Amino acid sequence: MSAPPEAPVEVAEPAAARKWRITSLEVLCALLVVALLLQGRLTSWLDVPRLRTASTIFVAVCVQALPFLVLGVLISGAIAAFVPGSVLNRLLPKKQAIAVPVAGVAGVALPTCECAAVPVARRLMQQGVPTSVALAFLLAAPAVNPVVLVATNVAFPNNPEMVVARLIGSLATAIVMGWLWARFGKAEWIIERALRRLPEPAGRTRWRLFFETSRADLVDAGGFLVIGALIAAALNVAVPREWVDTLGEQIVLGVVVMAVLAVLLALCSEADAFVAASIAGMPLLPKLVFLVVGPAIDVKLFALQAGTFGRAFAVRFAPATFVVAVVCAVVPGVILLGGAG
């Protein structure tokens, strides 16, 4: 009987032949070494009044917003892991005209961030929930949930009417857009795979899904918070005071500028109130528009909607949402904040 063939012997690759790659750890170490070597010069360069003011504003915005951001992503992760997507479907009325505002109000009890609301809305559609109802939930959940409203109250401690105005404006935006889609929306504007029924994901425990979702949302939203805080700090020290005073005197221009800024900054709804409050000299009405428009539509949401529901949907839904959000913010703002605020 012949001996069995010997298993091939693996030859280790010589160390010299391995390609050396620069990772983030090496980059961090190099930056620390450079900072230590140039400590004196860096101190003189950075020790200027404007930069000190900007750094103070940046740290203040981040420190104030971070607890609410963490709480928000934990709740979002818990919903993704432990709340079945079919719960809302079973509780909704069959008539769309009534189901749309019910889904909007459900956003108070089922909070998610803007990014998490998009896949949740898609899953609702895949489980047979009418598209108009799912879209109402998509717009309401990031804007009217308790975490966002408490954060708004903390950011504007002397203006509790801002919380009420934001709640009314955001909820009205979600309901109006749901009704508009029910009346004028077409199913062919949404790509087929977004409506196709899919099985529930398997292979992961609920706790693992909770931690993975929370971690991903925190990293994503935390990055946008840092960017927003940097821009808020830059606006406070770089923009001439007379420009801000001009926006305060020309309220229509201030509303337009803050609405566009909300789209471009793409802040997380748990943190945007602190950024808005940090813009000194801006009246309350433009700040309210900023808070209502941001969670409804921004550049990252447009990209998510285009990738999830299709470009034909996004190019129609996003501009309509922008206009409706501005109107729905201005009306309660004029009533509750007295116009210019």
UniProtKB/TrEMBL annotation:
TM segment ranges: 20-38, 58-83, 98-121, 133-156, 162-182, 218-239, 251-268, 275-297, 317-340
Describe its membrane topology.
Answer: Multi-pass membrane protein
Q: Is Membrane set as a keyword in this record?
A: yes
Q: Where in the cell is it found?
A: Cell membrane
- Which superkingdom? Bacteria
What would be one Gene Ontology cellular-component term for the protein? plasma membrane
Q: Record's Pfam families?
A: ArsP_1
Q: Does the keyword Transmembrane helix apply?
A: yes
The protein's predominant localisation is: membrane
User: Which UniProt keywords are present, listed alphabetically?
Assistant: Cell membrane, Membrane, Transmembrane, Transmembrane helix
Protein family? Belongs to the UPF0718 family.
Which protein is depicted?
Permease
Instruction: Supply the source organism for this entry.
Output: Actinokineospora auranticolor
